[in-house]
Amino acid sequence: MEIILAKTSGFCMGVKRAMQIALDTAGKSTQPVYTCGPLIHNPQAVAYLKDNGVDSVADWQNIKEGTIIIRAHGMPNGSIEKMKSHGLGVVDATCPHVVTSQRQIRKYSEEGYFVYIIGDPHHPEILSLQSFATDNHSLIANYAEAEAEMPPAKIMIIAQTTYNAVEFNKIAQLLKSRAQTAIICDSICQATSERQEEIKQLAAEADAVVIVGGKDSANTRRLAEIAQSLCPRTYHVETDEELIDKDFASINRVVISAGASTPDFITQRVINYLKSL
Ligand code: SF4
Q1: pTM of the model
Q2: Atom 8, ligand 1: which residue's CA is nearest?
Q3: Distance, CA of 81 to CA of 131 (rounded, Å)
Q4: How far is it, in rounded angstroms, from Cα 231 to Cα 59?
């Protein structure tokens, strides 16, 4: 069986950076170090961080002392100031691409544009992005929701950094065609679009695809959706153990890719398992 590992597989720049900042902070700090919710959406990476002194808490307001690491997804506007006035140290590991989106939303909101934010309404990045807009904004999850919109004259359209690029273009063009002035911000992270582009090419010629990464990770789930649409035998797994009951006997070529939050050692275990078959 031929095993092909996608070149774009694994940690993106923003996740690598956030992991490093968190581990460095824990290494230097004499007080506890926390993240609000998991630093990244991968249970194995979260366990690794915990073993190295970075714990995850659901609500920072319950913490009495220590340092909070702001995750790559960012936090709602004003959160850092609130944490500091609560007596906590803060280290900001928001991904620079997310910071750019936050700034764009603030800028166009202040200039009077109605802001359309396209993404998953429950994702922490979206909760952060929304908080940088004035009340003059709307959140759209998919094309069906966009079809129901009657935009005002002057709009700005921006997506969650991990949103599907093709879907975003469709939504943006639809909203633009209904407004007088439309600014479309290109906020989809290249790490995401390159990963999606590569899996499209590889999955089309594969007998099976294995996507490795957290089931809660939006970018990993999207990668699996794209692969599934081109290769019906696509498995989204968090660890190699989930492959044990899968039958690879008739598979000649298997493609492996991993989400932006998947540590390399997890992907390597999947490769080792497939090699052992
Ligand atoms: S996927 Fe892109 S935007 Fe998201 S954390 Fe990684 S580098 Fe940043």
Answers
A1: 0.82
A2: 14
A3: 14
A4: 40
- Fold observed for domain 13-94: Rossmann fold (3.40.50)
Establish whether residue 39 lines the binding site of ligand 1, counting it when its CB lies within 6 angstroms of any ligand atom: no
- Residues 208 and 224: beta-carbon distance below 8 Å: no
Give the Cα separation of 188 and 123 in Å (integer): 15
Which CATH code for domain 2-10+191-276?
A: 3.40.1010.20
CA of 80 to the centre of ligand 1 (A): 20
- pLDDT digit string, tens, across residues 114-168: 999 999 999 999 999 999 999 999 999 999 999 999 999 999 999 999 888 889 9
**The tokens of 27 are what?**
């290494």
14 lines ligand 1 (CB under 6 A): yes
Instruction: Report d(CA 103, CA 127) in Å as an integer.
Output: 15
| Equal fold, 2-10+191-276 vs 97-188 | yes
Q: How far is the CA of 260 from the centre of ligand 1 (A)?
A: 7
Point out which residues pair with 234 in neighbouring strands: 209
| Third-level CATH fold of 97-188 | Cobalt-precorrin-4 Transmethylase; domain 1 (3.40.1010)
Task: For ligand 1, say whether the CB of 12 is within 6 Å of any of its atoms.
Answer: yes
DSSP label at 113?
P
Nearest to 138 by CA among 277, 150, 254: 150
Separation of 183 CA from ligand 1 center, angstroms?
Answer: 22
Token duo for residue 124? 């922490």
